[in-house]
Amino acid sequence: MPVAERILEVVDLVKDYGSRGSVTHALRGVSLAVERGEFVGVMGPSGSGKTTLLNVISTIDTPTSGRVWIGGREVTALGRRELARFRRERLGFIFQDFNLLDTLTLRENIGLALSIAGAPAREIDRRVVAMARRLDLEEALDRFPYQVSGGQKQRAAAARALITGPDLVLADEPTGNLDSRSARSLLEALEELNRELQATILLVTHDPVAASYCRRILFIKDGRLFTELVRADAPRQRFFDRILGVLAELGGGGDDVR
């Protein structure tokens, strides 16, 4: 049986904020690993440290101590210029508020990273169209962000994140600004891309419905890993019910799979 490739490894991550007189311990020695092709969720109550964890992994923030490897590269040892290049070339981001450029069409937004990298125009268009087809965006490619729905904006953001074939896609509450139908469409698309392209996705969410699309979930409480759930072959409704059980222990919940 082949050995799985470890895409993300976090070791003894600590992040403190504030001065000596008033220190907030956001992360308290977190360690975790994600293998290539995994779809992993991170959940926890407000103030648990999940957003801080995502910020450190994404290289947006620096840890107080601890180490992070992505794709075999120790990102916590990189300088500012190296980090900027690493983020551009090796990571994909999906944000809650889309972060699309209003002056560019969806086609141009999706292909922007390839353009910056100097890819030929014909190759960019081929890859953009192929990714748009997977995300049901072909008819909207030549529209501007203000001309499409929130769901289409977020699917375009997902296409932009995945177009370069990054080592890791980091999704921060990607369904937070979507209605239930648009959220389901996005999550089903991410689930399919994870399965068919072996895209490695780390999804931070407060929503148990969104989390139920993941294959594994890490729960954080008070800056530490509390527990994890693995979906295995369980139906999504059953996995959702198990998620609610853990959230009840943490102090959160939901109603039903939408």
From TrEMBL:
It holds the Pfam family ABC_tran. PROSITE patterns: ABC_TRANSPORTER_2. Residues 8-247 form the ABC transporter domain. GO terms for molecular function: ATP binding; ATP hydrolysis activity; transmembrane transporter activity. The keyword Nucleotide-binding applies. Residues 180-207 form a coiled coil. The keyword Signal does not apply. Keywords: ATP-binding, Coiled coil, Nucleotide-binding, Transport. GO terms for cellular component: membrane protein complex; plasma membrane. This is ABC transporter ATP-binding protein. It comes from Symbiobacterium thermophilum (strain DSM 24528 / JCM 14929 / IAM 14863 / T).
